[in-house]
Amino acid sequence: MDALYTAVATANGREGRAVSSDGQIDLALALPPALGGNGAGTNPEQLFAAGYAACFASAMGNVGRQMKIDTKDVSVTAEVSIGKDDTGFGLAVIMRVELPDALAGETGRQLVEATHQYCPYSKATRGNIDVRLVIE
């Protein structure tokens, strides 16, 4: 792969800070209450969800242009769950893709599935994280 851009961020754990090299991100990190924390900061699952949703929505714009489909009214929500698995902890993702009525049915399904093949986050998670696509 020839890198077009490299993001750099540093963090010091789930109860600390995450800072990007350009200073655009400077966030307090905290365990969510569901994991015994006080919730007084963001957490890696929220950051991953935001990144995946943004990437998937942008990828859908690219795929839509290739398929000659208007995607301007599409919305993507990523739900990232953490839980125990055989080796410690694992992640699972539900990608909720809200399509306008004009994309209901087979056209929308083909668009979402093609996007899942194209999106860099989807490629990175394939075979590693259970990702379920839900079209709404």
Please compute the radius of gyration using only Cα atoms.
17 Å
Uncertain residue segments = none
Would you tell me the overall average pLDDT?
96
Shape estimate: globular
Q: Can you characterise this structure?
A:
By secondary structure, the chain is of the alpha+beta class. Helix content is 32%, strand content 28%. It contains 3 helices and 6 strands. The chain has helices at 44-67, 106-118, 120-125, and strands at 9-11, 17-20, 26-28, 75-85, 88-98, 130-135. It has a 3-stranded antiparallel β-sheet, with no helix packed on it. A 3-stranded mixed β-sheet has the order 4-5-6, with helices on one face. The radius of gyration is 17 Å and the shape is globular. The mean pLDDT is 96.
In short:
The chain has 136 residues and is an alpha+beta fold. It contains three helices and six strands; from the N terminus they run βββαββααβ.
